């Protein structure tokens, strides 16, 4: 029997946006998304590709067109389920209750959420875990309104043409994508992107001549490329924008190797974690790329030695260096409460919360 587990909205978002050559939504055994809300709610709007679950009497029906045994991701959502626990459903709420001991006599029953109820049926039919969307449609549509639709039937050519969004690494804060997504105005608007880290040779049309919001690291997609000289600038840039409440898009040409290497380096810096831990975290987000591919492509751009350099810094402790004659090197020695914007120091207010990451010294 399969497991019944919760799925966070960011997880479903990333499942919907996985891509190989085309969107993985085109694969028949990749995702089955079930909507167990009422028919009129489903018709009003639902998550793209979701199937409405019909009922016959009080029993949910299983769609005959889907071979659940072979589906990798089965996700069920209702309006707002956020717990596996049973709750009290009052079938006669307009009647007065005498006391708590007589609650069952007044039509009260212990029931579970509709999504959980249907999920418990599905776990009998599949070998993979069945996911319950935490917070249901209300929470997901509030976070990702652009995935709402009224379309019921999706033709194969329409799924082929579906344009995925960047993968969400840190919810609402850091996304990783490819060059085409970085050039798409709709993506920038929907995700509220207001800072770019471009780890490629191409030039994107956004934030041109605005060094406060664009960090362009020109690196070839080659095993000979060296990202180490730029990692401190990259991590400080992202750290500053996160502290200022910005949403950052890290991208490269294909959104696989150089951008992943940059994100892994930042996660090591931010969380003071090892290479292995941060790679595993990134691989869980990038579901469309196998673990071996993530590791291999990241190491093509910046070898494991580069990451181990940062790892050793985290393990051996920070060492202070004397200020250099080069002002750019002195920038790297700034404490986390200072940043370098518009050619001058910007000292954050002492009352503001400190960034989680620490400086490398």
From TrEMBL:
The UniProt gene name for this protein comes to Styxl1
Q: Which GO terms describe its cellular component?
A: mitochondrion
Domain Tyrosine-protein phosphatase per the UniProt entry, residue ranges:
165-308
Out of the domains of life, which is the source? Answer: Eukaryota
Taxonomic classification:
Eukaryota, Metazoa, Chordata, Craniata, Vertebrata
Q: Which GO terms describe its molecular function?
A: protein phosphatase binding; protein phosphatase inhibitor activity; pseudophosphatase activity
Name under which the protein is recorded: Serine/threonine/tyrosine-interacting-like protein 1 isoform X1
Q: What is one Gene Ontology biological process annotated in the Swiss-Prot or TrEMBL record?
A: positive regulation of intrinsic apoptotic signaling pathway
Pfam families, per database record: DSPc, Rhodanese
């Amino acid at each position: 029997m399969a497991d019944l587990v919760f799925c966070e909205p960011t997880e479903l978002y990333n499942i919907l946006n996985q891509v190989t050559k085309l969107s993985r939504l085109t694969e028949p055994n990749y995702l089955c998304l079930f909507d167990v809300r009422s028919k009129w709610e489903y018709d009003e709007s639902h998550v793209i590709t979701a199937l409405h679950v019909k009922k016959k009497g009080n029993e949910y029906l299983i769609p005959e067109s889907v071979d659940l045994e072979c589906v990798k991701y089965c996700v069920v959502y209702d309006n707002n389920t956020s717990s596996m626990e049973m709750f009290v459903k009052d079938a006669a709420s307009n009647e007065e209750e005498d006391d708590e001991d007589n609650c069952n006599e007044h039509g009260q029953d212990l029931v579970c959420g509709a999504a959980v109820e249907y999920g418990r049926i599905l776990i009998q039919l599949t070998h993979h875990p069945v996911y319950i969307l935490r917070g249901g449609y209300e929470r997901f549509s509030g976070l990702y309104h652009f995935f709402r639709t009224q379309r019921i039937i999706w033709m194969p050519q329409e799924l082929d043409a579906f344009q995925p969004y960047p993968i969400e690494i840190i919810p609402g804060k850091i996304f990783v994508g490819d060059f085409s997504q970085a050039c798409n105005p709709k993506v920038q608007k929907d995700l509220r992107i207001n800072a770019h880290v471009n780890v490629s040779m191409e030039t994107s049309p956004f934030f041109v001549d605005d060094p406060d919001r664009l960090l362009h690291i020109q690196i070839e997609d080659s095993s000979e490329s060296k990202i180490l000289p730029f990692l401190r600038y990259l991590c400080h840039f992202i750290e500053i924008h996160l502290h200022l409440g910005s949403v950052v898009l890290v991208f490269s040409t294909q959104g696989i190797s150089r951008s992943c290497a940059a994100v892994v380096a930042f996660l090591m810096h931010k969380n003071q974690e090892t290479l292995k831990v941060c790679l595993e975290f990134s691989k869980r987000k990038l579901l469309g790329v196998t673990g071996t591919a993530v590791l291999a492509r990241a190491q093509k751009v910046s070898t494991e030695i580069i990451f181990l350099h940062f790892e050793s810094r985290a393990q051996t402790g920070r060492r202070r260096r004397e200020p250099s004659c080069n002002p750019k090197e002195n920038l790297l020695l700034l404490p986390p409460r200072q940043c370098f914007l518009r050619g001058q120091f910007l000292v954050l207010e002492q009352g503001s919360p400190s960034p989680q990451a620490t400086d490398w010294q």
